[in-house]
Amino acid sequence: MANDKLLLNSRPVAPLGVVPLKSCESIGKRVDNWLISWRTERDQERTTNEEEPVYDNGSYLVEIDNPRFGSGEAKGEIKRTVRGLDLYLMVDITNHSLFYDIYGEPNHMSPDDHFSDLKRIIAAVEGKAHRITVIMPFLYEGRQHRRSARESLDCAIALQELVNMGVDNIITFDAHDPRVQNAIPLNGFETVKCTYQFIKGICKECDDIQFDNDHLMVISPDEGGTQRAVYMASVLGVDMGMFYKRRDYSKVVDGRNPIVAHEFIGASVEGKDMFIVDDMIASGESMIDVATELKKRGARRIFVIATFGLFTKGMKVFDEAVEKGIIYKVVTTNLVYQSEELLSRDYYISCGMSKYIAYIIDTLNHDSSIGKLLDPYDRINKLVTKYKAEHDQ
Fold first, then answer.
1. What percent of the chain has pLDDT over 70?
2. How far apart are CA 132 and CA 129, in angstroms?
3. DSSP state, residue 118
C-alpha cells in the first residue's frame, strides 16, 4: 500500500477509532476492512523480525447511535469508551435514503439532520478523545460559500461550529470552493481530488480510450470548475475547453439566476472524446446542456464525470440523453449515497473511494504527511502509461 515502508517504521499517534455515522455505514465497513488487512500484515512482519506488534486486534469501528424521540428530537450515543482515541468521524450529509419518525410520520433525513447528528456524536465524545478528524466527503453547505447581498454564510458557520466543538481536522473531497477554509485558518482542512479514481474507473470499463491531444479533450462545464479541468487536462497532456453560463440576472428561479445559454471557449472538439468534469451532478440539466452543445460541434463520445452524483431529479433525463447518443458514460464516486436505480444503469461507472480514505486515515493516525496521497500526478501517469502499453497505443 501507499507509504507502507514509512508506516512500518513508525507508530500510531494514538489508538485508532473509525466512527461512521449511519449515513456512511457501508463505506465505513470497507474502510475498516482495509485498515485491518494492512495492519495485520505489518504486525506479522514485525513479529517475524522479532519486534512487538503495535496495533489493536480486530475492528477499528466505534459503535454509535442517534436515537430519535417521537417529537423528532434526537441525541447522540457512543457505545464504548473513546478516551485517548484518534477518532475519524465519517458522515454523508446527502444521504436521502434514511428516515426517522416524527409524530408517527416518516421524514427524510436532510443535510441539516445529518449535520446535527454529527455534532451530537462529537458532543458525546465529551472532549475525551486524543484528536477528532471529521471526514465529510460532500462539504455541508459547500455551495453557500460566499455572500451575495444579504445572505447567510452557512458553510463558514458550520466549519467554525465544528472547530469550536473540538474538531482538529476536516477532510472533504473536491470542495465547491476550497477558499471556504479561510473561515478556520488555524485548523486543518484538506480537500481531496478524485482525478486518479476517475481515470482508473474509465480505463477499467473502456478499452479504446486514446489519451492524446488528437482524440481526447477535457471540458469544464462552467468557469467555476476551470481549475479542476485544467489539472486533469495537464496530467493527461490534452487540450481543455470551457463553457461559461450566460444567465438572466433579472430573474431568480429556485434560488438562482436561470441560464440563458452555454457559450464555448476552446479548440475544435470534432471527432474527439470529451471528458466533462465537475464537482457534482445535481439535476443534471446543466451537464446535458453542455453535452448537447458539444455534440452540435461534432464531438464523438461524451463522458460526464463528477465527484458527487446527487441526481436530484432521478435518472430519466440521463436515460434519455444516453438513448439519444448525447452521453456515452456517467462517472461518479461512491462518496455519497448511490441508489439501486443508479447502480442498475449499464452506462454508469462507479469509482470506489474506500481504499483511498483508508490510506488517508492510516497515514494520519501515524502523524505522517498525506502530501503524496493528495497529489495523484505520479499514479495517473503510471496508470495511463500501463493502459497505453496494454492497448498498443
1. 98
2. 7
3. H
